[in-house]
Design goal:
Layout: E1 9-13, H1 15-45, H2 52-72, H3 74-77, E2 80-84, E3 98-104, H4 112-123, E4 132-138, H5 143-166, H6 173-176, H7 190-201
Parallel strand pairs: 3-4
Antiparallel strand pairs: 1-2
Helix pairs in contact: 1-2, 4-5, 5-7
């Protein structure tokens, strides 16, 4: 029995934009050729009147800018728009298990708070918790890292459900409670504010 595959996105060429871009490229390229023709012909007809060094410098610069311009036209030649289809994503039962490895060594160079923020951010990933495994590697075996991990686990009991419930887009606690998290607080209700205050107390 044949299986039907569903794409996660579709690609559509913007014909109008592509035509306008190509006309602009043609006009621009014609102007560049005219300029180069002028430079070369002027050299042959007035070689005794112009300083060769200045002419070479200007012409070389124009050739360099022309080369850069040609290279940057590649993505304008065939502009496309992509439409995503999240409904075609496989269900949770088909998702594979993933392992997240976080490595640290010296708390003086890698502050424990930042490492724990990374741990909590990874746990809040939009992925089934039963298929997510987290590994923290502390090469030097610092007691401070172990203590920080214990505290992060206690904090995570309230932080993780809070992030999943309200779809927090800034999963790092340190960044969330700074100005970077202001967007997540826009148009929130009193229940959200109360839970946020409880987390701050934790």
């Amino acid at each position: 029995m044949a299986t039907t595959t569903h794409t996660l996105h579709t690609c559509k060429v913007e014909q109008t934009r592509a035509t306008i871009n190509k006309l602009h490229m043609l006009f621009h390229f014609t102007a560049i050729l005219s300029l180069l023709y002028y430079r070369i012909s002027y050299l042959f007809h007035h070689a005794h009147e112009i300083p060769i060094f200045s002419w070479c410098l200007v012409t070389t610069s124009e050739l360099m800018f022309t080369s850069i311009w040609i290279i940057t036209q590649a993505f304008r030649w065939w502009p496309v728009t992509r439409t995503i289809h999240p409904e075609n994503l496989c269900g949770n039962t088909e998702l594979p298990g993933i392992d997240v490895f976080i490595c640290t060594a010296d708390p003086k160079k890698e502050p424990t708070v930042e490492v724990m923020n990374t741990v909590l951010s990874a746990v809040v990933l939009d992925y089934p918790l039963e298929k997510l495994a987290m590994y923290l590697s502390d090469d030097d075996g610092w007691p401070l890292t172990l203590y920080g991990l214990k505290e992060a686990c206690l904090f995570g009991r309230s932080w993780i459900p809070f992030c999943r419930k309200y779809g927090i887009k800034t999963p790092s606690p340190e960044r969330y409670f700074s100005s970077f998290g202001d967007d997540d607080r826009v148009l929130r209700n009193h229940e959200f504010m109360a839970e946020e205050e409880d987390i701050k107390v934790d």
